[in-house]
Amino acid sequence: MTSTSFTEETDPFCLATVDAAAMLFDAPWQRYAVIGDSLSAGTGDKSVGYGSEGWSDRFAHVLRQVRPDLAYLNTAVIGATTVDTLDHQIDEMRDFAPDLLHLPCGANDLLRRSPDFGEIEQNMRKMYGLAAETGAQLTTFTLGRAYVVPVFPDWTERVLTLNDLTRAVADEYDAVVVDMWDHPVNSRENLLSADRIHFSTSGQAVIASEMVKALAATLARRTL
Length: 224
Known about the structure:
There is one protein chain. 42% of the residues lie in helices and 8% in strands. The chain is of the alpha/beta class. α6 links the parallel β3 and β4. The longest helix is centred in the C-terminal third of the chain and has 22 residues, at 201-222. The protein is globular, with a radius of gyration of 17 Å. The protein starts with 16 loop residues before the first helix and ends with a helix.
């Protein structure tokens, strides 16, 4: 069955808002921030049968069902690298003082002729270190395999290397990782926007649901 067969209501990977909110009924977070690039922002074309919101706005809407007074900051900028995020978004994020914070996974750092993964790791560690000083629960996700830039013949290897780096650094800071690399949604027709890079809003809806599931699991482990 292709993605064109689904709507947001029938998509097996999407949670209804009421169900998502029920999974986060005891969520303590009151100040939610998102920093980074277009993937953090939830940029994507509209999908027929789905809402127009990106994953981050969708997730904020779910949290507001639990915390109606939720404060939400999204400073993500299309094209931002990890260096751009450090230089132009960290200060505003720290002033906001989040207790839940989403970090980028460095997608735009791959768009060089020869990415310097040592430098990328250094930037990510600095970003995570500054983020951890807020005391917030950190989240991030890995890049999905549907994200392809054909001009680079080694693109898959680049993504796999970056995803491994993301998982390793995130683990050191107890960040929640929503792993999208091999999620079944990657195989769907019409998943990508016209730019062939960003998930359309059908994929954004799935990412939002996966974020809910991942954070619900985190909350459940805290009560054990």
